[in-house]
Amino acid sequence: MEMHTPFLLWATLFTGVISSGPVPRKLFGEIRSPNYPKPYPNNNISSWDIIVPKGYVVKLTFRYFDLEPSETCFYDYVKIRADKKSLGRYCGQLGSTTGNHPGRKEFVSKGNRMHLSFHSDFSNEDNGVVVPYRGFLAYYKAVVVNCGSPAKLTNGIFSYVNKPANNTYQSVITYQCNEPYYHIVTRGGGDRYTCSSEGTWVDRDGQKRIPACLPVCGKPDNPVIGVQRIVGGKKAREGNFPWQALTEIHGRGGGALLSDRWILTAAHTIFPKGSARNNVSLDELAKDASIFLGHSDVEQIIRMGNHPVHRIFIHPDYNPNDEHNYNGDIALLELKYPVTLGPTVLPICLPDTSNTTFYMDGYMGYVSGFGVEKNFLSNNLKYVQLPAVSREKCQSWLDSKKRENPMVFSENMFCAGFLREKRDTCQGDSGSAFTVLDLESGRWVATGIVSWGIGCAQGYGFYTKILGYLDWIKGIIKEDTL
Ligand SMILES: *[C@@H]1O[C@H](CO)[C@@H](O)[C@H](O)[C@H]1NC(C)=O
Ligand SMILES: *[C@@H]1O[C@H](CO)[C@@H](O)[C@H](O)[C@H]1NC(C)=O
Ligand SMILES: *[C@@H]1O[C@H](CO)[C@@H](O)[C@H](O)[C@H]1NC(C)=O
Ligand SMILES: *[C@@H]1O[C@H](CO)[C@@H](O)[C@H](O)[C@H]1NC(C)=O
């Protein structure tokens, strides 16, 4: 048996491994069955390896094809293989019903090789009559690899490094995220992708997976400036608190955006204390809930449209029937669709585990909300600056109220505010975040959730201490974006 491998030599010349003398630039050729155009001999086995330069694929068609027809091409046949896969077994004559004639079919490899094998058996007889079959004539050509348009990156773009921009072999692109609202996370192989000889865009490590654009938290374009003094609050300017959500579940509430499709809020905005409607299912509540984001004017934010809720998660410690204990007053709303981040819609960061700095007595924070002001629901986002207060002061103030059924002040709460000044959060602010500016990282961090108080602007307000619920939050939001 003799192997025909002239094409291997030719390919070697082309790729320049042997580079003396003029290099043939023929990127095509033909393959003939033994003795073609005369009939092929019996008992012949021949095979051909077509190898074209890297970055090209092989495209092959038959110009002429005439082999002894048989059921499943059992006797005489041509087999084609590429990329460790069979591209079929062929025999027969144009128009014959037995066999498997290739017709005008184009055979295309994914890599730069194709293998053809020919086999004839001991006879070409049909009912004792010898029939001569002429075999085949095949043409092939090398076609430059095309990777197609690169995959689109959500919240980012790709751009071509090479000019002219094209999607062919060795073309290079880079991915970028829409900064500063998203940051890029690559798979370890960088943000540059090259069109490979396999026809796929791959990074430096040869990986196909494209990067991701993850939300940047706690970095508003337009933060509140300086020390400024909801009841007695200031009107927020656009983009001061881009994480602020307006919720309509049981009346007006607030929330804070985490990542790009989660709203952190208070459980009692979903199951108010002592409400008769608390047997409504979470699914029904999710369907009825309205969530608004992206503006500090109530009319405008509502006009911008509702963000439908997919699922609601309420902390298991929250008891809607105990009006004296707001422990576990925390909930998460998962939006059906992620929001596109920008100057007026941006998530807030969560605190670091086990760092209690932000809860120290006197540490200043901000609470924003669309809540009640002078007995009316506010038309604007308002904010107040309030200091966190030590547990001892909070507790003794509560004790001084001498109520018959004292409110529980659990470890999962903190209080903030002033005793004498009329600055506090109120109804409608429930669920909004208590935020602090972390001077070290320059990021805004949510440390609390507006939970409960005794009247409005009368002494301290009480907040869910987010630090105590980080594991619960992260257990539900299983994203690496917090
Ligand atoms: C097949 O035919 C070719 C061309 O006639 C010949 O060179 C080759 O030796 C044959 N191979 C076998 C196995 O008979
Ligand atoms: C594609 O771009 C590469 C490099 O920029 C260039 O060499 C090649 O000729 C281009 N191919 C086509 C088909 O334009
Ligand atoms: C919920 O409770 C109210 C009264 O407590 C009752 O009338 C209503 O049928 C209940 N709804 C459901 C869905 O169980
Ligand atoms: C806690 O956070 C504050 C503010 O970022 C920082 O100054 C302090 O070093 C942190 N403490 C620890 C123990 O990480």
TrEMBL record:
Q: Which Gene3D superfamilies match?
A: Complement Module, domain 1 (2.10.70.10), Spermadhesin, CUB domain (2.60.120.290), Trypsin-like serine proteases (2.40.10.10)
The CUB domain extends over 19-143
The keyword Hydrolase is annotated on this UniProt entry: yes
Residue span, Peptidase S1 domain: 230-478
Question: Which PROSITE patterns would you find in this protein's record?
Answer: CUB, SUSHI, TRYPSIN_DOM, TRYPSIN_SER
What CDD domains does this protein map onto? CCP, CUB, Tryp_SPc
Query: Ranges for the Sushi domain?
Result: 145-215
Give Gene Ontology CC terms.
Answer: extracellular region
One biological process term from GO is:
proteolysis
Q: SUPFAM superfamilies from the entry?
A: Complement control module/SCR domain (SSF57535), Spermadhesin, CUB domain (SSF49854), Trypsin-like serine proteases (SSF50494)
Q: What is its main location?
A: secreted
Can you tell me where the transmembrane regions are? none
Is Hydrolase included in the keywords of this UniProt record?
A: yes
Gene Ontology molecular function terms on file:
serine-type endopeptidase activity
Alphabetized, the UniProt keywords read: Complement pathway, Disulfide bond, EGF-like domain, Glycoprotein, Hydrolase, Immunity, Innate immunity, Phosphoprotein, Protease, Secreted, Serine protease, Signal, Sushi
Kindly name one Pfam family recorded for this protein: Trypsin
- Tell me the protein's name: Complement C1r
Q: Which gene encodes it?
A: C1R
